[in-house]
Amino acid sequence: MAASLRALLRPAAAAARRRALLPPPPRPLLGVRACSVGAPFQYLAVQKTGVRQSVGLIQLNRPQALNALCQGLMEELRWALEALENDPQVGAIVITGSQKAFAAGADIKEMQNKTFQECYSSAFLAGWDKVSTVRKPIIAAVNGYALGGGCELAMMCDIIYAGEKAQFGQPEILLGTIPGAGGTQRLTRAVGKSLAMEMVLTGDRISAAEAKEAGLVSKVFPVEKLLDAAIACAEKIASNSKLVAAMAKESVNAAFETTLAEGNRTEKRLFYATFATGDRKEGMTAFVEKRKANFTDS
What we know:
Oligomer: single chain
Low-confidence stretches: 1-39
Structural class: alpha/beta
Distance between the termini: 44 Å
């Protein structure tokens, strides 16, 4: 297995996978089961969807392990995100799982026998940060379990929509360890110190309703309507200027990563930068002329 994985990681093979990724045959999307598993992927189902095929949809597809985030799955997720990032037709991305589990955590069997030396020298889990560095907006559509690494993956996304039966948690303490992919940092920023401490120190889960009340998720939907709602939001985002959307995302993220003064400077710099774009001129002209803007991502 290790030898075959190394072979897949060769640049030529990776490029071939990315070329083969998009686009699959378009078809109506009614729910998770409408996703088609493309031949290049073992652990994902990837397609473009929406009226204008402007939304990249990634479904975690490891049902026998409740979508546990093994090394192979995370490698494929990085390849899929890179392909969608480079696709000019795609303006937003949705990541989802199954109705039972978004992702139940990292693959414990893979890490069970790792040593400190192995983790440190290989920068274990460092590659997971690819999700948070994608410039296009990403929506996590969470049904079922989002635990451990699954909760961390959802929090790396820009917006979290949850099904009413979703559960969020960081139960690593019950395994004798702590979150290692941003859980203690992003959860604290999202829900505050007290609730984050309680979740991390006890391993207790919170419901979708509790997650919304705490500010971890923005909206909660019936299970069967979640994915359609996430895609609709992604389509709305994708209808705007992709260039300006990336600037807006960068500016909001600065609020979590810098001081208020530095964040304001970042916002001003990006605001001024929009005046060098054709889309800013088109948007304001369309507003004055009382018509719909025709953005060209320029």
